Amino acid sequence: MGRDRWHEVEEAGALVVARHWPVRFDLAVVTVLPRGGRRFLAHQVRQDMWRALQGLRGFVPAVRVTRTAEGLEVVAGGEVRGRFDRAHAEARIAAVLDDEANRARWQRRAR
């Protein structure tokens, strides 16, 4: 567990950042980004996703980053303790992942 109480675990070739272990993805959105630093990218995606969903009661964010031939596959989502509108929550995560300003910032800093 990291110094900020986040688990950073290498699992089957992927870096997983999560508050609780074992990680659970009740909701998840996938995107592919160009190659870069996985650890920094995972934490930045987690922070931006948290800001977008902090009003979702019982939300515990998690991010999995895997190197692929196309770049970095990012799975963003996490656990939700309680009932929630999956489509709405996943649309908000997708908006964070698809935002060009976010993607540019992540790429600039994740070298």
Broad shape: globular
Share of helix, binned: 25-40%
Sheet of most strands? 5 strands, antiparallel
Distance between the termini: 23 Å
Taking Cα atoms only, what radius of gyration do you get, to the nearest Å? 13 Å
Low-confidence stretches at least 5 residues in length (pLDDT < 50)?
none
Briefly note the structural class of the backbone. alpha+beta
Count of beta strands: 5
| Mean pLDDT across every amino acid position | 91
What name does the CATH topology carry? Alpha-D-Glucose-1,6-Bisphosphate, Chain A, domain 4
Strand order of the largest sheet: 1-2-4-5-3
CATH class (first level) name? Alpha Beta
Number of domains: 1
Share of β-strand residues: 25-35%
Number of helices: 3
Which CATH architecture is right?
2-Layer Sandwich
Textual characterization of the structure:
The chain has helices at 38-53, 86-98, 100-109; strands spanning 7-11, 14-18, 27-33, 59-68, 71-80. The protein has one domain (7-109): Alpha-D-Glucose-1,6-Bisphosphate, Chain A, domain 4 (2-Layer Sandwich). The chain has a five-stranded antiparallel β-sheet, covered by helices on one side. It has three helices and five strands. A hairpin with a 2-residue loop joins strand 1 (7-11) and strand 2 (14-18). With 111 residues, the chain is α+β, with helices and mostly antiparallel strands. The radius of gyration is 13 Å and the shape is globular.
